């Protein structure tokens, strides 16, 4: 895949205001060594949350790599298989649940990566020197809808069944897509809202990396046939033009020369 071309087209056609984030979970030390030799990357100065790593990628265009010591979020540490379930993890979910028994069951049913993870890289899609395990979009409602519709058509999947878990949107959301090879769309959790600086109107869309080309090709197919990426108003240059269907008032015509 030509990631630079893909990102430029996605930014333009969907009017994205954040770079799509390519996420790579490293299980092979040789791949880690190759990545470090090839990529220009940053590491957390202090332990941060996974969604804070993504701020650098989606807003500043920086590639971030870190291992366990750079991750300061217990939810993410658990989701990434870097620790087992313990009493502290259960208690950290107590405020969301009816009681500790329910909290324990909810933590147990979260998606988790297999053990053996070495490190994680997050990068703007255009700068990815690796095949992403997932591609994470921070987008608005209509951008998310366009991505979801293209995914369904491209992969012949309907309906979509995203996974929402307590207090693990960015981390747990990517793990679900990585493990299950499924599209995910979910709101910000309380942690990614404040720590990860997700805006109130934004939603997470996460697509398995191996399926990203299919989704992109579907978008390009629609553009070729209809002249633009817009689904709600085919041919319009804006994906999600807020004009009532069949409205006789909001109509423009080309002025005479």
**Shape annotation:** globular
What number is the mean pLDDT?
Answer: 93
The percent range for helix content is 25-40%
Major sheet strand order? 2-3-1-4-6-5
- Low-pLDDT runs: none
The total count of helices amounts to 10
Order of helices and strands: HEHHEHHHEEHHEHEH
Biggest sheet descriptor: 6 strands, antiparallel
Tell me the total number of β-strands: 6
Structural class: alpha+beta
How far the N terminus sits from the C terminus, by CA atoms, comes to 44 Å
Strand content: 5-15%
Can you describe what's shown?
The chain is of the alpha+beta class. The chain is 38% helix and 12% strand. It contains ten helices and six strands, in the order H-E-H-H-E-H-H-H-E-E-H-H-E-H-E-H. The protein has helices spanning 3-14, 29-38, 50-59, 74-79, 87-91, 100-108, 141-155, 170-180, 190-194, 212-226; strands spanning 21-26, 64-66, 119-124, 134-139, 184-186, 203-208. The protein has a six-stranded antiparallel β-sheet, sandwiched between helices. Helix 7 crosses helix 10. The termini are far apart. 39% of the residues are buried.
Task: Write out key terms for the chains shown.
257 residues, alpha+beta, six-stranded antiparallel sheet, 10 helices, 12% strand, globular
Note the topology.
Elements lengths: L2 H12 L6 E6 L2 H10 L11 H10 L4 E3 L7 H6 L7 H5 L8 H9 L10 E6 L9 E6 L1 H15 L14 H11 L3 E3 L3 H5 L8 E6 L3 H15 L31
Antiparallel strand pairs: 1-3, 1-4, 2-3, 4-6, 5-6
Helix pairs in contact: 7-10
